Amino acid sequence: MNDLTTNDDLLNLLKRTESVLETSNSLVVDFLFRGAGVSRKASTIPGELLTEIDQAVDKLLREQLLAILPGSGWRSEESDAIESSGSEKYIWVVDPIDGTNNLVYQPSAGEYGTSIALFRGNELVLGVLGFPLGFSRDPKQPIVLSGLVSERIVRVNGEQIILSSHSGDPSVVASWNDHWVRQIVANEIPVYAVGSVVMRLALVATGQATTYVSSGFAQRKTEHYALHDVAGGAAIVRAAGLELYGVDGRPVDVLSSTTHIAPFVAGERSEALDLIDAMAALY
After folding, report:
1. What is the DSSP letter of 223?
2. What is d(CA 203, CA 219) in angstroms, rounded to the nearest whole number?
3. Is 129 helix (H, G, I), strand (E, B) or coil?
4. pLDDT tens profile 63-108
5. CA nearest to 264, candidates 200, 195, 189
């Protein structure tokens, strides 16, 4: 196991992980041009799909991430887990493609992406997201978005961005299915439906949206998304100085020891708590 004893060590690892995501983005775009097989996943979720792209990206990430951090563990939506063999218990938590149904039915919309998080024990250390069509739906402009939590560093395609409060007009993002979110947001604030968890978290982390209201609140669920859906994006949100807040107004636990994440509102504290209070009054 490589000894990540300094922040420079972690930053170097972040850069190497970004390089892996660049390769992954290119792989996905190549599949988009030549086509990929699709099958039904053996899952408790009706209609959940699995593509050759999910499997190819999973294989690529597994090989390259375990190579750049020998002895690390592995947890992915699409393959068997590997336990860490090192004393620090580093573990990669990966979703090869978040938004597979969007990839299959609306590939040109680009509302899907790859999520990678690294934990040290239970501590969320870094996250890297890959968007093959970027934020502009253009295969010539893929995006690799990354964050190092401890250093409050957020990078887009290898360049550090300036972190600041959301400076534009406020906006909220949510799932296509969460029509109820409109009821808790002031009429003058737009609510945009976005097709994947990774894209919604990325929009908040980069200041393109103010807050993200996750699914599960209206159904009064104590847990909703799987850890692999949220962890990579959560790391970047935290690196941006923002947070994921639960129904009690406290930061949501994003731990390697858990399998699922409680419903949350991601963004700045005051704006997130205003929406949580509005939900409490409604539900």
Report:
1. -
2. 24
3. strand
4. 999 999 999 999 998 888 888 876 678 999 999 999 888 888 888 8
5. 200
Tokens describing residue 191: 């609510």
DSSP state, residue 252:
P
Mean of pLDDT values over 228-245: 97
Q: Mean pLDDT of all residues in the chain?
A: 90
Q: What percent of the chain has pLDDT over 70?
A: 94
Q: List the domains of the chain with CATH numbers.
A: 7-160 (3.30.540.10), 172-282 (3.40.190.80)
d(CA 136, CA 146): 18
Residue 116: left (phi > 0), alpha (psi -120 to 50), or beta? beta
Residue with tokens 């808790």: 184
* Other CB atoms within 10 A of residue 173 CB: 26
Q: What is the mean pLDDT of residues 186-195?
A: 93
The dihedral built from the CA positions of residue 81, 86, 87 and 91, taken in this order, carries a sign that is negative
Q: Using DSSP, state whether 109 is helix, strand or coil.
A: helix
Model pTM greater than 0.70? yes
